[in-house]
Amino acid sequence: MAPDPQQPPVPEIYGRDWRTALRALRKLLGNGDDTTQVFIIMRALNGSSTPKGYDRLLRTPRGARMAYDRVELADRFSDQTFVASFAPGTVGAAYRDWLAETGYSAAGLADISNLERHEEIVRHPYAWFGRRTRDVHDIWHVLTGYKADETMGEAALVGFSYAQTGGLGWAFIAAGAALKSLSVAKSTLFARAVLEGYRNGKRAAWLLAEDYEALMHEPLEAARQRLGIPEPVAYRRAQVELGEAMSAFASQQKAAAALA
């Protein structure tokens, strides 16, 4: 049967393109705000992690139903009525505050990830699961306590994400940021925070199997306890002790971006 010309192509399972990944990592480390490079690295290195994750989802108690429904979380998290419905103290309320504080949005992240600028989303189970993984990233910031507008917080969550997803692209970014921090901060505290993020991700429940529409209405601290997400001790310590060094790190990135 000939392919339907009205449907986007089924996403291929990408191999390892180290050259592309390294080029993108250099750009990302030079400008932490260049989020497009993150998705280029994911595309280059994550390989079969998406189909493996999707198959794992199907084996969870609620996963088959969620895969059948295929809710697009970017649309759900962009629904102002839905976001306004969360009671104080819940995961959703913390996410609402996070959106106001950072100025980020689920729709904005989805737009950055659309490297081919498809007008329609790719309707394929693996593509849906990939979008789901992308769309819960900001909720993971809320759950873990890792700040999104901070180089170290993002790097620590990247380590957490590698443990959760198995995508090699996450490990590549985390390692690159940790290595750069050694020369900038003259300390291992940043790297320890990233390693702690990985370890916390390994110990936590598998968050990709969560029903996020329900999770958003749970009390934040209760959700963290249920999911096994601890207070990031090494990260908090590094925030205090590396404050000035991390500011210098961010300044270097902005200066490099301005000269690029």
Task: List its salient traits.
260 residues; mainly alpha; 17 helices; 0% strand; disordered N terminus; disordered C terminus
Helix content: 55-70%
Number of helices, counting only DSSP H or I runs of 4 residues or more: 17
**Rounded average pLDDT:** 89
Low-pLDDT parts are 1-11, 254-260
Query: β content, as a range?
Result: under 5%
Number of strands: 0
So what's the overall shape? Answer: globular
State the domain count.
Answer: 1
Largest sheet, strands/sense/barrel: none
What does this structure look like?
It is a single chain. The protein has helices at residues 18-30, 36-45, 49-58, 63-69, 73-77, 80-84, 91-102, 106-113, 125-135, 137-144, 151-165, 168-185, 189-203, 212-215, 220-227, 233-241, 243-259. The chain is mainly alpha-helical and 260 residues long. It has one domain (18-259). The longest helix is centred in the last third of the chain and has 18 residues, at 168-185. Mean pLDDT is 89; it is low at 1-11 and 254-260.
What is the element layout, followed by pairings?
Elements: H1 18-30, H2 36-45, H3 49-58, H4 63-69, H5 73-77, H6 80-84, H7 91-102, H8 106-113, H9 125-135, H10 137-144, H11 151-165, H12 168-185, H13 189-203, H14 212-215, H15 220-227, H16 233-241, H17 243-259
